[in-house]
Amino acid sequence: MGNDESEATMDEPQYACLFCVMGVTSAIVFTAMGAAYGTAKSGLGVAQMAVKHPELIMKSIIPVVMAGIIAIYGLVVAVLLAGQLSERYNSFRAFLNLGAGIAVGLSGMASGFAIGIVGDAGVRASALQPKLFVGIVLILIFAEVLGLYGLIVAIYLFTK
């Protein structure tokens, strides 16, 4: 019994691709959940703030844009991981790709939650006290960078 191209081996089990697909799914689903929450929560704050201060809408849209960027991180990693899928796929690569997807996904979700909460409270507060705007933007940047850390780890795992 020979080891031809269609036969699975210990290093290349048939189910190895499943772990990569789980990584792809984790990357896009969790980052999209974080981005959706961040967009919805901060968008709610923008809408309520705009009732009394409609001139501040464009200035207050920053958290909504930042939340949307989180989903782009997940999309980039998901496309990179999906591009590696093939019939001959080893377990080591599969587990690295699963870890990459989970890393960017969960950090993106946490980042989106932070952006949503800070964005909601921040746009309302900066409408009442304009001096708070720079501080709120800095806090939003620190919340965004959490998702960026996940992207960096995911790309590092992808290149191993």
Quick take:
This protein is an all-alpha fold and 160 residues long. The protein has helices at residues 16-50, 57-60, 62-83, 91-128, 133-159.
Please, how many helices?
A: 5
Q: Helix and strand string, N-terminal first?
A: HHHHH
Structural domain count: 1
What is the CATH fold-level name? Four Helix Bundle (Hemerythrin (Met), subunit A)
Class based on secondary structure composition and strand pairing = mainly alpha
Beta strands, count:
0
Spatial separation of the terminal alpha carbons: 33 Å
Major sheet size, sense and barrel closure: none
Low-confidence parts: none
CATH-derived architecture: Up-down Bundle
* CATH homologous superfamily annotation: lithium bound rotor ring of v- atpase
